[in-house]
Amino acid sequence: MEILYKRCAGLDIHSETIVACVLIKDDDTNLIKEIETLPTLTKDLFYLLKWLEEREVTHIAMESKGSSWKPVYKCILEVFFDITLTHAQ
């Protein structure tokens, strides 16, 4: 599989939790994967932003099913501009 972005994240958003997965392609051939699960409280959204920034994420994909994604999207949009919304069916 071709790697399009060297530092990207995927967010799986539920009503009470967010599962974030970051993939980082280092300068060698290594692919580093980190997964974080956290609540959807405001303080946890700020933690998520910090966590993504610390990993220098440049692209984020997140689901847009239901309404749970909206507050997360608004919070992330303050810092990240390259967000892809998806709807799994």
UniProtKB/TrEMBL annotation:
GO molecular function: DNA binding; transposase activity
Record field: transmembrane: none
InterPro entries with a match to the protein in the record: Transp_IS110-like_N
Pfam families in alphabetical order: DEDD_Tnp_IS110
GO biological process: DNA transposition
Ranges of residues in domain Transposase IS110-like N-terminal: 9-83
Entry protein name: Transposase IS110-like N-terminal domain-containing protein
Source organism: Bacillus thuringiensis serovar vazensis
